[in-house]
Design brief:
This protein has helices spanning 15-18, 32-47, 61-74, 100-107, 109-117, 129-149, 160-170, 175-179; strands spanning 5-10, 54-57, 80-83, 154-158, 189-193, 199-204. It is of the alpha/beta class. The chain has a single domain, classed as Rossmann fold (3-Layer(aba) Sandwich), CATH 3.40.50. A 6-stranded mixed beta sheet has the order 3-2-4-1-5-6. β2 (54-57), α3 (61-74) and β3 (80-83) form a beta-alpha-beta unit. α2 packs across α3 and α4 packs across α5 (109-117). The protein is globular and about 50 Å long.
Length: 207
């Protein structure tokens, strides 16, 4: 029997998460706490008895380090890992590098909230969640899903918004539902898929 397991993990806390900065495509590393979160995710997945055949991550160091730490903790460092900017975090454009409080002071709290929590309104020079999904989902359909349906156990280490795009499809959420969905750093989501790519079972290891 084929398990068809897909595991999504948001990277551990980054240096800019800690500083409350809009990060987007800026390439910042994990904090010491982020390293601990990624290792803890690996221990949780190991406790589930999971073994991965292949991994996917973004072009950004915080996601790449996280998948390396997860697999190191599991004793599974030898697997093939594909890195692609299709899985990068949402590009925050002119907000990138700004403290969220400073952004509110510049544009107003209501406008910043709209950019952060609307599905299809992008910040200046950046991407909306819909734009992010438009690059994440084709990559998922072409590269990740066929491997899961073929019987591989697949681990994806990416970002809050690139993973939201996947969760939206997997859990059949509306745009309003997905923008309200929080994905904790270093918290694995385990999906077991049916042969038609729908979700048979979901397990959230955030607790």
């Amino acid at each position: 029997m084929t398990d068809r397991i897909l595991v999504l993990v948001r990277h551990g806390e980054s240096e800019w998460n800690l500083k409350n900065l809009f990060t987007g495509w800026r390439d910042v590393d994990l904090t010491d706490n982020g390293v601990k979160e990624a290792r803890a995710a690996g221990r949780k997945l190991k406790a589930q008895g999971l073994h991965f055949d292949i991994g996917f991550t973004s072009a950004l160091i915080r996601a790449q380090r996280s998948i390396d730490l997860v697999l190191e903790e599991m004793g599974q460092t030898g697997i093939k890992i594909f890195k692609d900017q299709a899985l990068n975090e949402r590009d925050y454009g002119d907000l990138s590098g700004l403290n969220k409080d400073d952004a509110r002071a510049k544009w107003g709290a209501e406008q910043v909230l709209i950019w952060r929590r609307s599905y299809d309104i992008a910040p200046p020079g950046g991407e909306s969640l819909r734009d992010t999904a438009a690059r994440v989902l084709p990559y998922y359909i072409q590269e990740i899903l066929p491997r899961v349906l073929g019987g591989a156990n697949v681990l994806v280490s990416a970002h809050g918004n690139s993973l939201r795009a996947l969760v939206m499809v997997l859990e059949k959420l509306s745009p309003k539902e997905i923008v309200a969905r929080e994905l904790k750093t270093g918290a694995p989501l385990i999906y077991r898929l049916n042969a038609d790519s729908t979700v048979a079972e979901k397990q959230d290891l955030a607790a």
